[in-house]
Amino acid sequence: MHKKAYLALVIATLCWGGNAVAGKLAVGHVSPMMLTFWRWLIATVIIFAISAPQLRKDWPVVRKNLPILIFLGVMGYVVFNAALYTAVNYTTAINVTVEQVLIPMLIFVMNFALFRMKVSLAQVFGFTLTFIGGIITAVHGDFETLRTLTVNIGDAIMMIAIVGYAIYTVALRWRPMVNWRTLMAVPALVAMLFSIPLAAWEYSSGRMIWPDTTGWIVALYTAVFASLIAQVLYIVGVGKIGANRAGLFINLVPVFGTLLSVAIIGEDLQIFHIVALALALSGIAIAEWGKPASV
């Protein structure tokens, strides 16, 4: 009945799942801040090229809402990706994908704390399972590290990305009512501009790596597939089956990311990864099933 919507959402999450793998493949071929800059420069050029008339039409609304659009671009596009691409220099692509299951739980906590959204016991239980799954991944299945507080630096950096994206998602409630192309184009431009000082810092510290052939391929993938195609297909899916049902498909991102990491990079799939994924996805499913009825 909704086969086209399901297909669109599965492809979108597959593209997003490949983002962490792309970041891992970029190591040694393009530095994290340069990758962030080129991703959003390429994406901005493409989206502006196909959206110019709509952007001119929406400009009066955009001008009045620049602060929130800038915030969305910085938190959702710059902080998340810059932290993710840095994290994979120190930890595995599987880890950073599995750890992203913490995002729905953080969104839930922030919405409850800021807006007192209704909460059920099933949601508390479900997101507790998700949290445990994320912690298992962060400590690589060794809870002794919690006592000594020796978490891998890459996993710690990834937590910055996760918090940033959760804030971005919560802040979307204040997004202006403009066409989806405008909502993509303006934050993408902001992300490109804000990534310039990060790239400059990377250069001044002697850490910048200009893209080689592999680096350019990764940059093109992140710009075209992880940024544009995935977002367009997600919007198509939301339009056909609604945001709540479409949002559940995001839980496929860590699944695809884990499988791609094993298949493409050859990373080892550990028992704790499987346990963490099972706990996290089960927790999210329980939380969705047990959500309070709408008022």
Automatic annotation (TrEMBL):
Q: Which UniProt keywords apply?
A: Cell membrane, Membrane, Transmembrane, Transmembrane helix
Q: What is its main location?
A: membrane
**Topologically, how does it sit relative to the membrane?**
Multi-pass membrane protein
Q: Which InterPro entries match?
A: AA-Vitamin_Transporters, EamA_dom, EmrE-like
Q: Where are the transmembrane segments?
A: 38-56, 68-88, 94-114, 121-141, 153-171, 183-201, 213-236, 248-265, 271-290
Kindly list the places in or outside the cell where this protein is found, as annotated in its UniProt entry: Cell membrane
Q: Where is the EamA domain?
A: 4-137, 153-286
UniProt xrefs under Pfam families: EamA
Does Aminoacyl-tRNA synthetase appear among the keywords? no
The highest taxon in the source lineage is Bacteria
Q: What is this protein called?
A: DMT family transporter
